[in-house]
Hints:
Blueprint (H helix, E strand, L loop, with lengths): L1 E2 L11 E8 L5 H9 L4 E4 L5 E3 L3 E8 L4 E5 L3 E7 L4 H10 L17 H5 L2 E2 L2 E2 L4 E8 L4 E6 L20 E11 L21 H15 L7 E5 L5 E2 L1 H7 L8 E3 L5 E3 L1 H7 L6 E2 L2 E3 L6 E4 L6 H19 L8 E4 L2 E3 L1 H10 L1
Parallel strand pairs: 2-5, 3-5, 4-20
Antiparallel strand pairs: 1-2, 6-7, 7-12, 8-9, 10-11, 10-12, 13-19, 14-16, 15-16, 17-18, 18-19, 20-21
Amino acid sequence: MNDARxxxxxxxxxxxxxxxxxxxxxxxxSLHSLSGAGKPWVCCGxxxxxxxxxxxxxxxxxxxxxxxxxIECNDAWLIEAAAGENWHELVCWLVSRNVGGLENxxxxxxxxxxxxxxxxxxxxxxxxxxxxxxxxxxSHTEQFSRLTHAQCQFGYRSSIFKTPQMQGCIVTxxxxxxxxxxxxxxxxxSLQSLDSDSVSISQVFDMICQTRRLKLPDPKKVGNAGSxxxxxxxxRQWVERFQPLYAQIPIYPLPDGTFKVAAGWLIEQCGxxxxxxxxxxxxxxxxxxxxxxxxxxxxxxxxxxAGHIQDEVYQKFAIRLDPEVLFISTEGFVNPQExxxxxxxx
Length: 346
């Protein structure tokens, strides 16, 4: 068994059967051999959205495919980036060339290949706003295929890549399309203080980075996986019930008539910001982030803390928070809600 701490940013103690690093297309043949032999494997990029809740007996496939290309068209920039590229480094590379669009997604940890899987988002933008296509490789057929934006079936922190339909497939490249007619996205938080008529791409980028560094822990220093829970989507009836009781509740109307509620605010209102449980803790500056407080926390301790948060929020606000982080156990990826449900029974 191999130590898995170096392959995920939560850095909890966990082991995997084997580690296979994919650095070039030839390495994919080893992946084909695993699938052909019926041996289990799971794929990760930089492991910034993973929690090991147990040792995994199969092979951890680490995507390190690297390449990036910027193509100029009449009205847009096309970007082709290999799945193993670091997401934030790609954003920096584009901003340095005055190519705008992704600056609101700056400093999101992880790889390019993980971005469409999770449909990453922050500060009013999502990967799906810019994704043109996603290339995958099927380990059974050894064939590449390219999925269009529509075929990716993007949703809030979801995509087709999270479904059983994609079992045995690995993201190899992502195509992005950014309009040359850049329009700053300043509808979120402190960005509203910027002047939309004069602001530059780099100014938006700098403010996003400054805000994230002030609020969020560096996973290189404190183990974490960023936002642990999704912001819940509620119906109008919920808003009518709770908004009179909590005038400051952050609620964002959505086009379909539902509303998004800030999960971090809900957790904070339950008095859980900064709470510790075993080696796990809730970050003192951002309640949506759970941390490996001691540096030696186990996956079980993170799960117990997450389950406690779920229970407290449900009792106070009648909302069952849904984890954004992916869980890996003995058999591979498992349903986080089922794991937390088992916590409640224990």
